Amino acid sequence: MTIEQWILAGLAVVFVGFSKAGFGGGAGILATPLMAMVFPPKLAIGVMLPLLVVSDLVSCGVYRRDWESGPLRYFLPAAALGIVLATFTLGWVEDLWLKRILGMICLGFVAVQWWRERLSQVLAPSVPGWRSGTGFGLAAGITSTLAHAAGPVFAMYLLPQGYSPRRFVATTVLAFTVINLLKLPGYLHLGLIEAGSLELSMRLAPLVVLGTLLGVWLNRHCPAQVFTKVIQVVLFLSGLELVFGKSLLQLLWSFATNVG
Predict the structure, then answer these.
(1) Measured by CB atoms within 10 angstroms of the end CB, which terminus of the chain is less buried, N or C?
(2) Burial of 117 (0-12, 13-18, 19+ CB in 10 A)
């Protein structure tokens, strides 16, 4: 790997930890395409998973007293089913259209939230049920397995429930700790995680810890109203990336390398 590739991979890993701890995981979806600019896509998701697990465990230590298990009652069993289904099809499934559909859902969700705010309507907190929990959980399990792209799905599920920023992040951390651990056996079986990819993951692991700690600091110093706005912006950017297949980070990197 060249120095430029190491820098790009390092930035992606810092961003993973930063977004997971500070913004509930939603922004982390932007890091996978960035990592795929350095590695082939399947190697990229294989390298990413151990790093996500490291970030999960660090974040769990910080937020262990703050999460809510209630919203996960139906969400996690459905996510486990989604992981199994996606693992069986990961080797051959064409996930481009799945990503585009997810992106449209993200954009639609943000549009509804912004429209409500323009009309000065307050979104009443909702209580999670088996329908929403199962639907979002299944979608999260599939998209997380295929592309580590379930952050926006869980954000759409959890945001209407009206939790504080810290409780929102803590609950997200708990959910994705379980999801990412459940993904490990399938990735190992498919050969997405092997000695070479694991070595790369371990080299990059200190950066994800650094990013996680930066995210924790930001979460503690970010007002609730600003936090919600940031989540909505993250969902909007994530939706654009999923629909069009090219993130703002990729566009900026392409511009910088062309200028150079």
Answers:
(1) C
(2) middle
